[in-house]
Every structure is written in C-alpha cells, then in structure tokens.
Design goal:
Elements: H1 2-53, H2 62-99
C-alpha cells in the first residue's frame, strides 16, 4: 500500500513541470490574443475617424463655418487624446510581449 502511495506521489510530482510549462504557454497566448484584440480596436477606431478627417463639407456662411469648426474642435481633440493614451498602452504591451 505504501509503495502505491509513493508511486502516485512521484507520478503527480512528475506532472508538475509539464503543467507549469503549459500554464506559461497559455498565459502567453492570452496576452498575445489580448494584444491582437487591442490592435483590432485601434484599427477600427482609425477607420471610423478617417472619413471625418478628410471631410470637405463647409457651411455657406462665416457663422456656420465657425459653428462647424467649434463643434469639431472639442470632440476631435478629446478623441485624439484618448487615442494617444490607448496607443501608448498598446505600444507598451507590445514591448512587454517582445521582451518576455
């Protein structure tokens, strides 16, 4: 009986190293797929905002043009600020994946 217990214990211990390796591979895979997901989000944000950045629609009066400029100024600035932050985070995660 003692021999069986010892054999089971040794078998269990021999599995620990492969399990640790598998866990490390899975964790790295999760990080990689999170990175791909973040890249997809950034690319979709860019594709959504490219048409607005190239828009050539202007109003027919000075007041209308100024109003349109004011409407676009605040959202565009805040969007770009948010985009820059998320891009920096994405670049940091890329560097971490590359190093580790």
């Amino acid at each position: 009986m003692m021999l069986i217990c010892c054999a089971l214990c040794c078998s269990f211990k021999s599995l620990q190293k492969p399990l640790d390796q598998r866990r490390a591979q899975l964790e790295a895979s999760v990080l990689l797929f999170e990175f791909y997901h973040d890249v997809d989000l950034e690319l979709s944000w860019i594709s959504e905002h490219v048409p607005a950045s190239g828009s050539t629609s202007y109003d027919k009066s000075l007041a209308g043009a100024i109003s349109l400029m004011q409407k676009q100024k605040v959202p565009a600035a805040s969007h770009c600020l948010t985009y820059r932050k998320s891009t920096r985070l994405l670049i940091c995660s890329c560097k971490q994946l590359r190093m580790g």
